[in-house]
Amino acid sequence: MCKSKRKLFSTVLITTVLIFMFLTPVLTFPEDTPNKDVTGSRDHPLISRFPGSYIRFYESKDYDEFTLPLNKLNKAEFGDKYKEFTEKGLRVEGKMTQNFYVVPKKHSTLKIFRNYEQALKGKDFEIIARKSGGVDEGFRYQLYNGIDFKDASETHFEGVWADKESGRYLAAKLSQAEGDVYISLFTAKHGFYGGKWPDGQPAVFQVIIEETNLETDLINVESVMQDINSKGKAAIYGIQFDVDSAEIKEESEPTINKIAELLKENPDLNLNVVGHTDSTGNLDYNIDLSERRAESLVEFLVNNYNIDQNRLNSFGVGPLAPKATNETENGRAKNRRVELVKK
Q: What domain of life (predicted)?
């Protein structure tokens, strides 16, 4: 090749490379990007973030449920008082805030964990469970199951992986007159499926549940039907009875109107109406009372809304299927309910 042709070839090659460099997007990992919080996210007022971290995922719901995965811990890792939670975990309901923080790589998960632990104790939280290292796959699955991880660009991820040995977890409780507050906090080196964080980076998944009184006037047919289709049942609040009575109080009618509307809009829907009580009093009496109350609701729907009797059955289970603890008034209020269970 002559000198002039070699020079021309070199010029074209260099130009092509430069064009390719400018037009080809540079692949970066989250730790290479500016540490900016996801739009609309914020720290929970009860506890601040670890210094230098940023919120990669955030979700807040005014009322939802969450199960702290205490059943995946050894019984020795929390006090005798809480051993009953080792079978199914501790399930709580209320206002729920979820934050997933990315922490600078220079910090160890132990340092992060100890800082959060001391901060919670300083705010009068009781540490009810803790675990350091050896966090197995079952624990991580239960913790992250059902969480819809997505980033600021609305990119959805199938899930996250977390390093077993660096994993540290604690559950804490703050007792308040207006309702207890629970915190589930897990820190470990994390990464997203697909190799987004190939080496892992410290991160904190924080869930805060504030027990609040359920607003019972928000029942709507669409949401109840969604629960029945997805869970096979729907919990109904707002049906009121006098103490130790199966007589339905007048203020219950707006809620019953919605149940009747549900049945009329879905003529093929057949239901078991199941009464529930709290654990106050005698077990046999409560089971009988809950069954009589369920019978009253079925009779009310049949007699006042012309619902076919064959579409409804009534049962009562008393306090045998609680939604929350019976140790607090807020929990007992959640347990006093009627459930519509699809036949």
A: Bacteria
Identify the sign of the CA torsion 246, 248, 252, 257: positive
Q: Is CATH 3.30.1330.60 the right assignment for the domain spanning 216-342?
A: yes
Q: How do beta strands 126-132 and 168-174 pair?
A: antiparallel
Burial of 22 (0-12, 13-18, 19+ CB in 10 A): exposed
Domain parsing of the chain, residue ranges: 30-210, 216-342
Reference 286, options 262, 319, 250; nearest CA is 319
Q: Which two tokens stand for residue 26?
A: 């540079």
Q: How is residue 152 annotated by DSSP? A: T
pTM of this structure? 0.56
Tokens 């077993």, located at residue: 164
Q: What is the pLDDT of residues 156-167, one digit of tens each?
A: 555 567 788 888
Residue 340 and residue 272: Cα distance in Å, rounded? 6
- The helix/strand/coil state of 138 is helix
Tokens of 13: 């090659």
